[in-house]
Specification:
By secondary structure, the chain is an alpha+beta fold. The chain has helices at 3-15, 21-28, 32-38, 52-59, 152-165, and strands at residues 44-48, 64-70, 75-81, 85-88, 91-94, 102-104, 109-119, 122-131, 136-141. The longest helix is centred in the C-terminal third of the chain and has 14 residues, at 152-165.
Length: 167
């Protein structure tokens, strides 16, 4: 991406920090990673994808969160606890027989982004696992309490994980 294009994207994201990342990427013909990197620095920290397993293990202890997979064709949302997992046979395997389970290609994770920004009139916080192509594998959002505020216990864990991975 040309530096002038990135400067334009940064200006756009500064004015529209709550824009849907995937929509901006599609409209501007850039990767979702580029959109995340264009957010104001106070809203994003990015660490290496080599911490995928450690990040997922930590998230497994957060309790109820919302995991989102956003593709061109659908937005899948799962609200509940992310199960613990382990690496085996080339995948990070979510070890649970029901609810959220599956096999994640952890070696394709190039970066882990920690994003705190306004979204639809509220503060949001999420971890985006970014693949080697600059796409978002999935996002894990800090949960909300009964007043729809971010859960303070999870926000503390989110920030601590960001401190370890994106220092």
């Amino acid at each position: 991406m040309l530096s002038t294009d990135f400067a334009d994207l940064k200006a756009y994201m500064a004015d529209n920090p709550g824009a849907v990342i995937e929509d901006v990427a599609r409209e501007r013909r850039v990767t979702p990673r580029a959109v995340i990197e264009a957010l104001p620095p106070s809203m994003v920290r990015i660490g290496s994808g080599e911490h995928f397993a450690a990040g997922m293990q930590d998230i497994a202890g957060w309790g109820e969160v919302t995991l989102i997979v956003h593709t061109d064709d659908a937005i899948f949302e799962f609200t509940g606890a992310v199960p613990a997992g382990e690496i085996g046979r080339g995948y990070f395997n979510l070890m649970q027989p029901k609810g959220l389970h599956g096999h994640l290609r952890h070696e394709r994770c190039a970066a882990i982004a920690f994003v705190e920004r306004p979204f639809m009139g509220k503060v949001s916080a999420f971890v985006a696992f970014v693949n080697v192509d600059g796409g978002i594998m999935f996002k894990v959002f800090v949960g909300r309490d009964e007043t729809r505020a971010l859960r303070s216990d999870q926000l503390v864990r989110f920030r601590a994980l960001a401190d370890r991975i994106a220092a």
